[in-house]
Amino acid sequence: MSTVITRLAPGLAGSRPRERRGRVAEAARCAITLTVAGAAGAAAIVVAYRRAEFGDSGQFGWFWAGMLLFTLSAGYWALRRGTSARLRLAVLIGYGAFTYLPKLLRHPSGPLYHDEYAHWGQSHDILVDGRLFELNPIVRVIGDYPGLHACVASLAALTGLSIWQSALFVLTTAHVLLTLGVAVLAGQLRPDPRIAAAAAIGYSLNSSFLFFDTQFGYESLSLPIMVWALVATLRALRATTVPARLGWSALTLLLAAATTATHHLTALWLTGIVGLLALVCTIHSIPARELITPARAAWALTSGTALIVAAWLAVVAPRTGDYLDPYLGRALNQFSGLAGGEEGGRELFSKSVLPWWEQSAAYVAPVVALIAMVAAVGLWWRLRYTDEPVARAGTTAMLLVGALYFPATALILTPAGAEGARRSWAFSYLGLAIAAAPVVVALLDRVRRLQPRLSTAGRTAAGAGLAGICALLLVGNNAAGMNPSYRFPGPPVYGSDTRAATPEVLAAAHWLLDTQGHGIRLVADRYSGLILGSYGEQRPTTGSESFPAYDLYRAAPGQPIAPALLAQLRDWRFEFLVVDRRMAEQVPDINIYFETNEPLRHDGVPAFDRAQLTKFDTMPWLIKLYDGPHLAIYRFDFGSLGQPVHEGTR
Amino acid sequence: MMTTILRPLVIAYASLAVLLPAASLPWPLLLAACLLALLAIGELWVRAVIGRPAESGVPAVRAGLTVLAGLLTLPAVALLLHPLGAAVAPVPLIAGCALLATVLAAAGLLRLHLGRPVAGEPCDEPGVPAQRAAGRTADLSGARRRATARTAAAILLPIGLSALVGVAAIRTVETSSHPVLPGYLTVALNGWAAGITHPVTVPARGLAVPVRITNSGLPTRTDWLRLRVGGAVVATRRVTMMTGKVYALSVRVPALPPDGCLRPIGISVGEASTVFYAKAQGGASGRARNDRGRTAC
């Protein structure tokens, strides 16, 4: 392994003309191969989406055929020993761009996922009003993190592109930067371009890479910034002169500030990882005295980053704690309850439409990750006397970050922890991929050394085995991490974030905007609220524990509405109530009517009856302005509360 | 050495000038100018903060940091404009970017001035052990130019090919047929009636209420339009609604008894309906009590 670590980076040294011609021919072969594979892969993904849209079977097979066609080709060129450094760079850029396609082709013309509506609306408001830090009606806290929205709105303002087009440009760039950033980060620990490429491709197998971290959401921009901040941190630790250390430290803190202004969780993860690096450097500095200065630098950067994050949370975004706390607190409670033998856990893949092989891959993927982790620990132990000190400390930190993947996998069993667990994988997989990448290259080298003794079939089996593991992780992680309705199109489904934009709801949103104007406060369910808050440019609320707006719907006919709730609605100037009568007919696809904490039944039976939702027709303080097959819009008239109504014409 | 700072500064100024709203240029030109300006400012960020970074592993450090810094320039300027009360709009953004470029260029020049060149390299970061050896071979300016050109090709070629494949795939998705989505019939209060906020007063001659009926995606159908007062049907009429048509109708509400009571007025077509509340003009208070002590309404 030591030969791998100290080998010169190919392509950075000068080359002879014949060698150069060979490199050009190699680059041409690579470009042709990957362009053909990319075109065929994209075509297969389009076929998969069309089959899903028309309700035909086979979308899963077509999708993965398209994805694996390109991923495995790119993996071959990226990990091939003879590939030059620049060609490897080109392959990784192409890989980053191609892996943005599944999300892009899912709905190229506008927002689709729950959070996308919120971020799109926020950016749109900045473009129209020019103001940052405005409260968002769909996701309360995102207004306090304007990094992505300011970037997209500014680009739109300067170029005349739409918000969506600007967002696609920013997000594609960010996705490619994330792929490259992981490679560069791995390169800071071991300057072998093959290890760097293996880390980038390994990281891309995580459950968020294809769909979640490509959406119009703040994570999609903050993750690449965090990865590059870690690159700058390692460079600061490695620097041998004071100006260089100061420069890279300044860059780390600037990128930490950018991360903090973009996304809360990423900022916390960045602080944690830099802190872990500082701790590991300190511990390693006991036997390796040359790590004393890097350890001091790491602690200074940890303090700086923590200070930036704390200041932002305290001064700019004090609501963040209240926003995040219920998720973590309830998840831990549910997990301790499960450990104590209580019921209430999640049944994985319950009523799932995923094929058996995707579900099986989802169960096997963590086991494969565990084997990779054990192998990475083994290699780390084997190299304990030969590794360069900063590389050793960095690898230790990455192993510890990667180890967090496994407890998070257990949290997936709790309803409240599942979302957080999925989101954490994008971070913990960074450690896992970087720590395991040298193992992959070491195994490839071992197979190469054994080649003379191996038959052709044996060599092919070794290559196929690695490709198979790669495919298994990609399929399994995505099956575990993303709901099928987010991954594939299909007919409108009640209670699905991605299939909520039916023509009826869009028409209602446009009617409200055209006749009543924008920025109106209204009460709505989660799915109507998404459309009304984005395309409709209104300010919907779905309720919360302290503002139980859903109690309006829960009240039985004839039962009075709580005066405190009515006072809140009146004092906060709510003007409209939106009622989707499907709440009395169907159970939402994702089993949420309003928000995750709602006090409603979730046992497979609709939580409302029809009378609860049509009672508004007879309340004199609600004027029914609009009605369709499912959706009705009422205006609040609090002045008529308690007014008697005469039934009959006489 | 100063050209490494002045060249991106000039490019940034020139590109930002193209972006001024007064130029009224088409978006492809504006996009190109914006990207050029951001790349130039990104390069200035890198030069000002860390100097010329050495590569390690995959040679993406300089290019990656330049693109990232350029991209983050926009939110950085927007955030700096916020406390000054300036809106996120073209002119403040352009002015902010120009000012930032100037400051970064000054910082870069200062860094050059203070730094001690090592083997013709302006204060380069030594990096990890393997790349130090690799970096020594690329000290000639001609060789470095060729290396830069090759790196640029390695970056631009995959971007171009990916864009080609991606645009073709998007065009296919957008131009191909899609399943027909379910249609709907809606009824809404229209015109002045869409603005009803309180109970309406109906004069003695009655009241004309505008309504809007929309048939989108449903086959042509004929339904009863019904007017209900106090829950009882007082008028009906058959209306035919053709596919994809919007109808503006007027429904006459008759005079109400002058008892001051609120009555629900319902207008429905098929299953869809609107409801508002009304009372007669000049009627007695709805709170009046009858002889048995109950409210009159």
What does this entry look like structurally?
The complex is a heterodimer of chains A (650) and B (297). Chain A is mostly helical and 650 residues long. Chain A has two domains: 2-216 and 319-487, no CATH class; 497-640, Rossmann fold, CATH 3.40.50. Chain A has helices at 2-6, 17-53, 59-79, 85-98, 101-106, 114-129, 147-159, 163-189, 193-203, 218-238, 242-260, 264-284, 292-316, 320-339, 356-382, 389-403, 405-411, 417-450, 456-481, 484-487, 503-516, 526-534, 551-554, 563-571, 610-614; strands spanning 521-523, 539-541, 576-580, 622-627, 631-636. Chain A has a five-stranded mixed sheet, with helices on one face. In chain A, helix 9 runs antiparallel to helix 18 (417-450). The longest helix of chain A has 37 residues, at 17-53. Chain A starts with a helix and ends in a 14-residue tail after the last strand. In chain B, 43% of the residues lie in helices and 21% in strands. Chain B is built from six helices and eight strands, in the order ααααααββββββββ. Chain B has a five-stranded mixed sheet, with no helix packed on it. Chain B has a three-stranded antiparallel sheet with strand order 1-3-6, with no helix packed on it. In chain B, helix 1 runs antiparallel to helix 2 (27-49) and helix 1 (3-18) packs antiparallel against helix 4. Chain B has two domains: 3-139, no CATH class; 184-280, Immunoglobulin-like (Sandwich). Chain B has helices spanning 3-18, 27-49, 61-81, 90-114, 129-136, 141-175, and strands at residues 184-189, 200-202, 207-216, 221-229, 232-241, 245-253, 263-269, 272-280. The longest helix of chain B has 35 residues, at 141-175. Chain B is elongated and about 95 Å long. Chains A and B meet through helix 2, helix 4, helix 5, helix 6 and helix 7 of A and helix 2, helix 3, helix 4, helix 5 and helix 6 of B. Strand 4 of chain A pairs antiparallel with strand 1 of chain B, so a sheet runs across the interface.
